[in-house]
Amino acid sequence: MSYVIPSEFAEKMIDAGESKVLMSTKDTLIRSYMAGAILALAAAFAVTIAVNTGNFLVASLLFPVGFCMLYLLGFDLLTGVFTLCPLAVIAKRPGITWKGVFRNWGLVFCGNFAGALTTAVFMAVIFTTGFSHEPNAVGQRIGVIGEARTVGYAAAGASGFLTVFIRAVMCNWMVSTGVVAAMMSTSVSGKIMAMWMPILVFFYLGFEHSIVNMFLFPSGIMLGGEFTWGDYLLYNEFPVIVGNLVGGLTFVGGMIYSTHYKTSPKRSVAGVGTPAE
Fold first, then answer.
1. For the chain, which residues make up each domain, given as ranges?
2. What predicted TM-score, i.e. pTM, was given to this entire model?
3. Torsion-angle region of 208 (φ positive above 0: left; ψ -120 to 50: alpha; else: beta)
4. Which positions, given as ranges, span the membrane (predicted)?
5. Which CATH number does 6-261 carry?
6. Residues whose CB is less than 8 angstroms from the CB of residue 108 and which lie 6 or more positions away in sequence, other chains included
7. Which of 63, 126, 153, 241 is spaced 20 to 30 A from 207 at the CA atom?
8. How many CB atoms lie within 10 A of CB 73?
9. Is the separation of the CB atoms in 216 and 244 below 8 Å?
10. Which residues of the chain register pLDDT less than 70?
């Protein structure tokens, strides 16, 4: 499968982060818009499968098709740039600053949100036959998802905030592992296989992904969900973004950088060179 060893893909991660920070505003917005739109469509696809088959595992097995498509097309998700861009600063790449990283994050957020919202409107039209009928079964299900993961968290108070934050941390642990996994192979089939596994884990376990939620919750509001934009932003999107940032930067970017890019000297063997510890 043309496997790339960790020390080599660690370098690729930093190269990717540098490239994304230096990317033009136009390209950043287009690529992030399309990433949000495609991932949103994959979410609609998965919910439709779950409703029509009654089997969430089947939906989870097929959801990663959207992630694979957007990655292979070179599009950008906020969860991915959360992990990759800071590494270019930490590695002290020339001309890469935190200001540039924050600029990239802001542009990618806007692009992802616009793309996901576009798909949300399109799918709401489909689910309601142009808003002329009540939502179909899939639309009704999306409305319920939004309620449970906004006002449902709010009802639990501080425990709800802790839960949504931890779910977001674990989400980008898996999603960014998928981003990095695609760098482990130089073949398309190898990239797809490597990406598929962590994305399947995140979706089946119901972790919180900020871009997927940019589709699910606006859709839920349009389809009659009993929650507001304020509920969505306060009790889900904002804490999820923070959790996604923490999860991707620490469990994936930070860990791989620390051990595969900044590898410590090996311990010596007793009797050879300096004594072993």
1. 6-261
2. 0.94
3. beta
4. 33-51, 57-84, 105-131, 151-175, 196-218, 238-257
5. 1.20.1080.10
6. 28, 32, 76, 77, 78, 81
7. 126
8. 11
9. no
10. 1, 271-277
